[in-house]
Amino acid sequence: MHTKTYPMVYKADPNRYEKMLYNRCGRNGLKLPAISLGLWHNFGGADIFENGRKILHYAFDCGITHFDLANNYGPPPGSAEENFGKIISSDFRAYRDEIVISTKAGYYMWPGPYGDHGSRKYLISSLDQSLKRMKLDYVDIFYSHRPDPETPVEETMSALAQAVRQGKALYAGISNYNPEQTIRASEILQELGVPCLLHQPRYSMFDRWIEDGLLDVLEEKGIGCIPFSPLAQGLLSNRYLHGIPEGSRADKPHGFLKKEYITPDKIEKVKKLNKIAEKRGQSLAQMALAWILRDKRITSVLVGASSIEQLQDTHKMLENIIFTGLELEEIESVLQ
Ligand SMILES: NC(=O)c1ccc[n+]([C@@H]2O[C@H](COP(=O)([O-])OP(=O)(O)OC[C@H]3O[C@@H](n4cnc5c(N)ncnc54)[C@H](OP(=O)(O)O)[C@@H]3O)[C@@H](O)[C@H]2O)c1
């Protein structure tokens, strides 16, 4: 059980860097913690501010130096960045240079033709809004949140490069791009002198599309990989073993984990995986995250958390990230 109480003035744990592994992003200079924290859920205006604040303190105390946002995180959209801005300016001001903050634009944010997708107009004005909400001079990583079939990819990539040249972002990243789109985007960024730092795809035991070409492309291009929803939004944990608990993501009206996704077949698999995790002496969430990190092309797992206890469990995963061949075969036979 987590017991530390946080005073109003936050002081980071001096031992935090001994508690984390840091991996290089592909062949770039930047290193990221093996575990990064995303603020998609649990940090918006609909959530309890102090809970989010405590989770961020706890994360940084564990050596989690990377926090991931997007313009639309909330609800309401933008409120996760606003809350994060309050916490960064009040509690983390002294640590800004020790923290990697990312944001994105690509999904619907405001009405009219300039508040969605991948035009330069949208990306640059969205980043300006994000910086204001977070009270920051710059973000570390600015992503194109998704490919836009209508905007030339040259325009979207040159908007990312422009953000870097203007000093509004230090690095450029892409998210949800397929292997072919990734090759094209990274070649354009390379030509513009702003290499692609990182790709953010969905990846978990239940969603393995990146094994089918994307990871090879990232390795060849020297781009890092930070999978999102590595616990399939909480499904790959003990959370739903006995139904849908109150307050869980699947129980919330604004949660993106839809009840229909929690099928008897999935729960059957979760139960079998849970048994394998027990034999390894770890929680299913820990095993599901360690399983992702088994591939050296993965830079960091990008988790969410609704409590300090969850993040504490997740962090302990680092004590056992090695799998035997037999364990991997057992997991494979469940997932087939
Ligand atoms: N680029 C994109 O398009 C995109 C899309 C989605 C997400 N993302 C990024 O990825 C981040 C992570 O996504 P995600 O929140 O879906 O990740 P996730 O880690 O798969 O799911 C997080 C949820 O799992 C549960 N959980 C976490 N740790 C647990 C533990 N140790 N034991 C039991 N349950 C645990 C919690 O559910 P409860 O809330 O029910 O407690 C938590 O909210 C986002 O915050 C965002 O930054 C990016």
Question: What is the topological layout?
Answer:
Elements: E1 22-24, E2 31-33, E3 35-38, H1 49-61, E4 66-68, H2 79-91, E5 100-105, H3 120-134, E6 139-144, H4 153-165, E7 169-175, H5 179-191, E8 196-200, H6 214-221, E9 224-225, H7 264-279, H8 284-293, E10 301-303, H9 308-316, H10 325-335
Parallel strand pairs: 3-4, 3-10, 4-5, 5-6, 6-7, 7-8, 8-9
Antiparallel strand pairs: 1-2
Helix pairs in contact: 3-4, 4-5, 5-6, 7-10
The structure holds NADP nicotinamide-adenine-dinucleotide phosphate.
Notes on the structure:
α5 (179-191) runs parallel beside α6 (214-221). By secondary structure, the protein is α/β, with parallel strands linked by helices. The chain is globular and about 50 Å long. The strands form two sheets. Strands 9-8-7-6-5-4-3-10 form an eight-stranded parallel beta sheet. The chain contains ten helices and ten strands. α2 (79-91) links the parallel β4 (66-68) and β5. It starts with 21 loop residues before the first strand and ends with a helix. Helices cover 36% and strands 12% of the residues. The structure holds NADP nicotinamide-adenine-dinucleotide phosphate. NADP nicotinamide-adenine-dinucleotide phosphate (NAP) binds next to β10 and α9.
